[in-house]
Fold:
Amino acid sequence: MGRLFGTDGVRGVANTELSADLAFKLGQAGALVLAAETKHKPIILIGKDTRISCDMLEGAMIAGICSVGADVVSLGVIPTPAVAYLTRLYKADAGVVISASHNTFEFNGVKFFNGDGFKLADDVEDKIEHCIKNELDGLELPVGDKVGRHSVCGSALADYVGYLKPICSEGLSGLKVALDCANGAAYEAAPALFRELGADVAVVGEAPDGMNINASCGSTHIDGLLKLTVESGADVGFAFDGDADRVLASDENGRLVDGDALMALIASDLAGKGRLRGGAVVATVMSNLGLELAMSKIGVKLIRAPVGDRYVLEEMQKASCVFGGEQSGHIIYTELGTTGDGVASALMAINILAAQKKKFSEIANIMTAMPQVQRNARVANEKKYRFLEDDVVKGKCGEIESKFGGEGRVVIRPSGTEPLVRVMIEAKDIDVITKYAEELVKVIEERLG
Structure:
């Protein structure tokens, strides 16, 4: 068995790579590790997205958690950040999300939050993994009234919506918003929330059937939102991914406003209000150079972290700053929550629109994006971390970057979930960087395929 945990929990094809047996063991080990210090009967929350396999995996995890003496509370279909928030609100010992985020429906995943609503550090994940591999066989299990109980929380969605509503201090009466809920975890929460705030809402991706999550919809297929925004005459549009921890936007003209542009907008607003504590924004190595330049103009430092919102959060904590995110639309504002929240980020953006009473295209143009090309090199899974050791690959990267004269970047990194090395090149000439990206992919595949 290789390492179970990737960049965002355990993920794989449901019922094969992520089997009911593995989910059962994750439930047992997660409960044992995360509730090890409690003096009471532990309580663990479980939320999920809309995949057909979620019920199977939830049942297995409930059985595993209860088998080691912890109680389980099911929250139903609900966004990932809602589980983080409700874990704190309900004073639970841990939270679990069953979701594969932006992946197609045959995949699923398991990620944990600790009792404070934070994703787990690598060393805690290692403890859970060690427990599964070495300590569950022969484990003495509780009996009688020491076995855990399962219950269902009927107020979870309302509690989450109630927590988000104050973000939008301006109210949304007179605004029309287009939403693409990806047939995923936000399909109830997001439309209900925007309507309660007074917006006229046009929505797609709100009819999940277990198999259509992220299927030609949501933030990974943004064209649907861009079209809906224009055709519905909306002032702004927002598209979420399957578990709603990320968001991308559309202006009224159907132009994409990605995570970098949303961060530039929100960070500028926070800085102007004196609420950008720490005077810095944390982005990742994949964020556009244009974001860095835009932040520099307003006296805000850009700090870069590895890809993954938990790494963004770790860097934010190190730098004592409150705002950060990813180009993909994971945006974290720690004054509101402990993880990326697509719906909360959408509310922060539309609240600026409501306050400024301008077109979204006018307020969302704070940064000028540098042309950026991304390509995937397909490699052997066991070799995807070896590019750092390969002199030919390193030499090709250095050769390309030297040609930019300090006005471009080359970033390569392994995928956390697939047998891929991701290549990103950024500079002024799109044709040139496209050529270089394809050359680099070829070299990586020859060396590591």
